[in-house]
Write a structure and sequence with these properties.
Blueprint: H1 3-6, E1 11-20, E2 36-51, H2 56-60, E3 63-67, E4 70-80, E5 83-92, H3 100-106, E6 116-132, E7 135-148, E8 151-163, H4 168-180, E9 184-185, H5 190-197
Antiparallel strand pairs: 1-5, 1-8, 1-9, 2-3, 2-6, 3-4, 4-5, 6-7, 7-8
Length: 207
């Protein structure tokens, strides 16, 4: 979605997350009548997630990461159908220190000085933009490696369908196609998968 639009102001992010096998291939979207697809190719994402020693942010249901020059705060989630909906705030800054805007948000849950990097993910993301009449959605296929220094400790894949409230019908069609192709709706955040691979114990996902 448009990172510039979000800069400095929180908006609701609405997405359906689906677990897939590591050799999963996106199905042909030509079978969705009336839907146009624009393949935007692949992008490498390097994300560092910050938390306390005791994973206070994870246990509060919020998250903080720095990825490709952008800090992102994700608020608490709620479930709407298959979609997970949560507030998202983004601020462009280097990854050496947490920007004041982010400190203000995480300060509701923890002393910002207690935060430090706890997980690093290297993701190859394949973007496809979808449109049907006035509805739009973004389909991404992520192939993720969990890093510990230079060592890859785990890898996994997932697919996400991000959409606005007005594009629910389009998103539902895409999700049905993905499930028919072997994907399974799974709300587990990448961050939690990474923490488990690193031997940490994040909270169970209850959405």
């Amino acid at each position: 979605m448009d990172a510039t639009r979000r800069e400095g102001a929180g908006v609701d992010e609405r997405e359906v997350k689906l677990a897939v096998a590591e050799d999963f291939e996106l199905p042909a979207l030509t079978g969705l009548d009336g839907v146009t697809a624009v393949d935007r190719g692949e992008e490498r994402l390097r994300a560092v997630y910050w938390d306390t020693d005791g994973l206070a942010l994870a246990h509060a249901g919020v998250g903080l990461r720095h990825r490709n020059g952008v800090w992102t705060y994700k608020g608490r989630s709620r479930r709407e159908g298959d979609a997970v909906v949560r507030e998202e705030l983004e601020v462009s800054a280097d990854g050496g220190s947490i920007p004041p805007e982010m400190c203000a948000r995480v300060g509701e849950w923890v002393e910002p000085a207690a935060l430090h990097p706890v997980a690093e993910l290297d993701t190859m993301r394949h973007h496809v933009d979808l449109a049907q009449a006035d509805s739009t959605a973004e389909l991404v296929h992520d192939r993720v490696r969990v890093l510990e220094g230079a060592r890859v400790v785990a890898s996994f894949a997932e697919v996400e369908v991000e959409h606005g409230r007005a594009s629910q019908e389009l998103a539902d069609r895409v999700v049905r196609l993905l499930v028919a192709s072997g994907a399974a709706v799974d709300t587990t955040p990448k961050y939690f998968r990474a923490l488990r691979a690193l031997g940490q114990r994040p909270p169970d996902v209850s959405l």
